[in-house]
Write a structure and sequence with these properties.
Elements (H helix, E strand, L loop, with lengths): L3 H4 L31 E8 L7 E10 L2 E7 L13 E10 L1 E2 L23 H4 L5 H14 L10 H13 L3 E4 L3 E4 L4 E3 L5 E2 L23 H10 L4 E5 L12 H7 L2 E3 L2 E2 L5 E5 L5 H9 L3 E4 L1 H8 L5 H7 L2 E4 L11 H15 L6 H7 L2 H7 L16 E5 L5 H7 L5 E6 L2 E5 L1 H7 L4 E5 L2 E5 L8 H4 L3 H13 L1 H9 L19 E3 L29 H5 L6 H4 L16 H6 L6 H10 L1
Parallel strand pairs: 1-4, 5-6, 6-9, 10-13, 13-14, 14-15
Antiparallel strand pairs: 1-2, 2-3, 4-16, 7-8, 7-21, 11-12, 16-17, 17-18, 18-20, 19-20
Helix pairs in contact: 3-17, 4-16, 10-21, 11-13
Length: 589
């Protein structure tokens, strides 16, 4: 067994037997504490600083999770690094990719292929007849199924799998996996990949995406909630399309409802609208005046609506833009793929308005600024956390190289100065031997041990998580039958105040009310005209067939595009995606 203390000193957090499985405990770091060793990583360094400095041959010095210095190779090492061996990365170093929108729990599901029609807004596709058997039904079963002992056999596997999917795409920060317990407690899973909603880190303010009912009744209360925040407030906004000839579309109502009085808006510099696809040019000007930002998910928008946000208008107005791949049923497999779609859309529809450098900024420095994390993340410079991505090669234009990079081109992914994924020759120097995975037939290493791991997930290797989920999705109809079968009531406890061990399940924001609002439910034209979407559970509750009758075997979505022999073919069959983007995406892979 590897002596982990030799590599990363432990505080004993892994082996606390008294800690309840998946229990909500005192605040602790969701990524490893700042105890990593001194490192010196050499390669071409893309700083993403104000001057977009690129050092063609430099060394990044790291200590206890922080970047100490970035120096040209010819310069002397900082004090204390004279005897630290230089690790030759053989590639180009970028800040780790920051994803501002993803429903990670759903990323075990394959692409909805083909999307059956062109929808106008998000309230439509969740009611389509294909949605329940392909999306909400399988996730309901996975999220609610319990073993005979009362625990979820799939939750630890799902968390492990979707986090590794992030790592294999270069993502070091994303939205998290929401959990709910039988005690009525809700929380976000603390994992290896940074979670924007639950950092448990005073230096990284937690983004908000939860709207209590009282704050969603009217725009005044919503504004009051915004003004209380000191971090980013992520909110689905105007997901759908708007024809300028008919400007008051259902999608755009989500935005118009935020106007409290003429030119007085429930907006602030903390507000970030996810999708914002239904906004017109004048709306982006309003958003910019209030310092708001947006999160762009082009592939998901194109798949569902045949169009996406007016990002050129957003840029012209001065709105900061981040990126999110949304989820695997109607989006990119990872943020590396979303960068490709964004670049293609810019080339095909916007005459190259967004350069490869612009898009790289959206996934690094601009995303950190939207989150109010710019003091610690989004750039490679002294004082920042060592969240790093290394791609193969140092010759081509670095930004263009990132857009064209495949998952097989990723050489290293590091979070808080700890190597989490990479090629064997680098991982052998940076982390204990933990687990292997093949990407495009090539061997890669993962290091998944961490001090603050939830015990159930800590003991699940990726290989077992993959088998568990693959078998569950293939056997999803039987699992649904088991879930539908009446369970005998448990005998009442004799000791009324005995502690009950919490049982955790997935809190699925696209299926049931879980404290995460998809859009502000604000009255627009009177008390009966609400802009928030109807929950899928409410739609299907009336005379809906049993899931066991409609579910069929589903294939587990592969971790990468490289290992998914059907993904690009499925994209080519999507009726709403423009032909040049479909063909261009295939060429980029």
């Amino acid at each position: 067994m590897t002596n982990l203390r030799k590599w990363y000193p432990l505080t004993g957090a892994v082996a606390r037997p008294e800690r309840a499985v998946m229990a909500l405990s005192k605040k602790e770091s969701p990524v490893d504490p700042l105890t990593g060793p001194r490192l010196a990583l050499a390669g071409r360094v893309v700083s993403m600083d104000d001057g977009f400095t690129v050092k063609s041959d430099a060394i990044v010095y790291v200590d206890k999770g922080f970047i100490v210095s970035v120096r040209e190779r010819a310069q002397p090492a900082p004090s204390g690094y004279e005897d630290v061996p230089v690790v030759e990365t053989g590639g180009t170093l970028f800040p780790g990719l920051i994803e501002l929108h993803n429903h990670l729990s759903y990323n075990v599901l394959p692409l909805w292929a083909p999307v059956p029609k062109r929808f106008r807004h998000r309230g439509q596709w969740s009611g389509h007849k294909d949605y329940r058997p392909l999306v909400s039904g399988p996730m309901t079963v996975l999220g609610q199924y319990r073993s005979a002992q009362g625990q979820s056999p799939f939750l630890p596997a799902l968390v492990r799998y979707v986090e590794c999917k992030c790592l294999l795409g270069g993502v070091t920060t994303s939205q998290g996996v929401k959990l709910a317990s039988n005690a009525g407690i809700q929380r976000f899973y603390r994992g290896i990949v940074r979670n924007v909603e639950q950092t448990d880190d005073p230096d990284l303010p937690e983004a908000q995406c939860r709207i209590p009912d009282v704050a969603a009744k009217d725009a005044n209360n919503f504004l009051a909630r915004l003004q209380k925040e000191d971090s980013c407030f992520l909110l689905h906004l105007s997901e759908g399309i708007t024809n300028p000839a008919q400007p008051v579309s259902p999608a755009r109502k989500h935005f118009l409802a935020l106007e409290i009085a003429p030119d007085y808006w429930a907006l602030s510099e903390r507000f970030a609208g996810i999708h914002a696809a239904g906004l017109l040019q004048q709306d982006f000007e309003v958003l910019a005046r209030h310092g708001g930002s947006m999160v762009w998910s082009p592939l998901s928008n194109l798949l569902l609506y045949g169009d996406t946000a007016r990002v050129a208008a957003a840029k012209a107005a001065g709105v900061a833009i981040g990126l999110g791949s949304d989820w695997s049923p109607t989006g990119s497999k990872n943020l590396l793929g979303e960068l490709k779609v964004a670049w293609l859309y810019s080339q095909v529809n916007l005459n190259g308005r967004f350069s490869a450098r612009d898009l790289t900024a959206m996934a690094t420095r601009d995303a950190a600024r939207i989150l109010k994390w710019e003091k610690l993340l989004g750039r490679i410079e002294a004082g920042k956390r060592a969240d790093l991505l290394v791609i193969d090669g140092t010759n081509a234009d670095p930004y263009d190289a990132l857009i064209r990079a495949k998952e097989t081109d990723l050489r290293l992914v590091m979070i808080n100065g700890i190597a989490r994924f990479g090629v064997p020759e680098l991982m052998a120097q940076l982390a204990p031997d933990n687990e292997s995975v093949r990407v495009g037939g090539r061997m890669r290493r993962l290091f998944l041990k961490q001090e603050s791991a939830d015990p159930d997930v800590a003991q699940v290797p990726l290989s077992r998580a993959t088998r568990t989920l693959r078998n569950a999705l293939r056997d999803i109809a039987r699992l649904a039958r088991d879930l539908e079968a009446p369970r005998p009531a448990k005998a009442a406890r004799r000791v009324l105040d005995a502690q009950v061990e919490p049982v955790w399940s997935l809190a699925l924001d696209e299926i049931s009310s879980c404290g995460v609002e998809l859009s502000p439910r604000l009255p627009f034209n009177g008390p009966r005209d609400f802009t928030g979407p109807e929950r899928t559970a409410r739609v299907v509750a009336k005379a809906a067939p049993l899931l066991s009758k409609i579910l069929k075997p589903i294939e587990l979505d592969p971790l990468t595009v490289t290992d998914d022999g059907k993904f690009l073919a499925a994209i080519e069959q999507q009726p709403n995606v423009p032909e040049p983007i479909k063909l261009g995406l295939a060429e980029l892979y």
